[in-house]
Amino acid sequence: MLEVDLHPKNTPVNPPDNNLVRLREVVKTYHGSAGTFTALKGVDLSVESGAFVSIIGKSGSGKSTLINVITGIDRPSSGEVIVDHTPVHTLNEEQIAIWRGRSVGVIFQFFQLLPTLTAVENILLAMDYGRHYPRLERPERAMQLLELVGMAEYAHRLPGSLSGGQQQCVAIARALANDPVLLTADEPTGNLDSKSTEMVFQLFENLAGTGKAILMVTHDNELAVRAQRTIRLVDGRIQDEFVNR
């Protein structure tokens, strides 16, 4: 596989510290036919390894944009985004794809599992793209991940035959396929019942306990305060930060 330098020449990268995610003066402005809209307005943020952080705010406050900028799905208009000691804001599209496959697991509200692939095949496909593990090791790891999320007995079931909570657990296993240091989740429990919500939340707590950082966008304030730390966005700015425990 072609090796791509994720630290371009002449790009300063801070010396290692415990901050896995660091944003400095991040601005994101969208330009469209309806005009200009600034979704993020000078956001500064630090998240350490092993942290479980919830992000709350009203619709349009910038929550999803913040997650997308951190994961490289969206680019900041200005400012710095450094994740796992990589200056994400300086990378080109090819470099971002390689970096994301190595360092970040993205969990979506609507699961986004491929419907024609079984649970284990969805995870194997993520490993094929990431190429983090040798091919012969991938089937065993995929089953270990399904075991981790309590879904091993459903390994050969198609997503359509699983409940919403079960699909989200498979999606979390897929996000873990290449052993990322950061997991981001945008409203991961928005379509789940209370039992499935609790199952997913406890899984996030366990993963944070292993040293992975978890960033979870949620509209559920009761769920948000159970994370270690809560960030409240208002009109594209971090208004408040709370340490919950």
Rg from Cα:
18 Å
- Average pLDDT: 89
- Distance between the amino and carboxyl termini: 43 Å
Strand order of the largest sheet: 6-7-8-3-9-10
SSE class? alpha/beta
Biggest sheet statistics: 6 strands, mixed
The helix/strand series, from N terminus to C terminus, equals EEEHEEHEHHHEHEHEE
Number of distinct beta strands = 10
Q: Which band does the percent of strand residues land in?
A: 25-35%
Quaternary form: single chain
**Helical residue percent band:** 25-40%
Low-pLDDT ranges: 1-5, 7-16
What does the overall shape look like?
A: globular
What is the number of helical segments per DSSP (H or I, 4+ residues)? Answer: 7
Verbal overview:
Helix 3 crosses helix 4 and helix 4 crosses helix 5. Strands 6-7-8-3-9-10 form a 6-stranded mixed sheet. A 4-stranded antiparallel sheet has the order 2-1-4-5, covered by helices on one side. The protein is globular, with a radius of gyration of 18 Å. The protein is built from 7 helices and 10 strands. Mean pLDDT is 89; it is low at 1-5 and 7-16. It has helices at 63-70, 93-103, 119-130, 138-148, 164-175, 194-209, 221-224; strands spanning 19-32, 35-48, 52-56, 78-83, 86-87, 104-107, 182-186, 213-217, 229-234, 237-243. The protein is an alpha/beta fold. The chain starts with 18 loop residues before the first strand and ends with a strand.
